[in-house]
Amino acid sequence: MLQDPTIRNPIAISFGAIAGAICRYYLTLWFVQRFGTAFPYGTFFINITGCFAMGLLTTLLLERVLILPPEVQLMITTGFLGAYTTFSTYGLESFVMLRDRPFIPALLYWAGSAILGIFSVQLGAIVARLGS
Fold it and tell me: Do the beta carbons of residue 113 and residue 47 sit within 8 Å?
């Protein structure tokens, strides 16, 4: 039964998602304790590092620099990084900031997350290729 990918893959994704969600939760708490809630530093950091990790890992996996079983790949990318990154939270926080706060910090968060997120995926891919 556990040899069947239709069972193994969802289990692998679930284990990764648990770890990713817990990491996101504790990192967010840490940032709130250190920097307060005036700016969503935790979500911002998580989105940027999650994008970097996604670019790094998918490049290593796609270019066969890193060989991992398919269920481990799913556990890391879909499971861990899918739960770790917080794009829906980013959307909500952007909406609230644009509604309730001065425009410039809201704009910096909204645009900075998108631009730095894409940049971080690219940077992750470049770093992955440096070792090749």
Answer: yes
Q: How far is CA 24 from CA 46, 61, 104, 111, 112, in A?
A: 7, 24, 26, 21, 19
Side-chain-side CA neighbours of 37 within 13 Å: the count stands at: 4
Residue 105 pLDDT > 80, yes or no?
yes
For 6-18, what is each residue's pLDDT tens digit?
899 999 999 999 9
Read off the pLDDT of residues 71-83 as tens digits, 9 standing for 90 and up.
Answer: 999 999 999 999 9
* pLDDT recorded at residue 116: 95
